[in-house]
Amino acid sequence: MAPLTPDQARMRHRVEIVIRLLSPALNLVLAVGDRVSRVVDRQQLDDAQVRVPGSVAGSPRPVARRALPPGFERRAETGEH
Questions:
Q1: Which residues, at least 6 apart from 15, have a Cβ–Cβ distance to it below 8 Å?
Q2: One-letter-per-residue 3-state SS of 11-69
Q3: In angstroms, how far apart are the furthest CA atoms of the chain?
Q4: What CA–CA distance (Å, rounded) separates 76 from 72?
Q5: pTM (2 decimals)?
Q6: What average pLDDT does the structure give for the chain?
């Protein structure tokens, strides 16, 4: 890489100073945005719950039961993996 000219070095130094001065404010903006996105995401999950036809509003959706693989019950009882 070619060495910087004196004008380029001054400009680079000025830009680095501006970034250093603004970094606390930028960090605050990022932290607030993170918190807001988490709150909004939680609210969207609560509002978008899937309802089963005929179910009461607010009641949880029934969990589908899946068939267990052969021998799974025995492994769970004995603690085998």
A1: none
A2: HHHHHHHHHHHHHHHHHHHHHHHHHHHHHHHHHHHHHCCCCCCCCCCCCCCCCCCCCCC
A3: 77
A4: 6
A5: 0.43
A6: 77
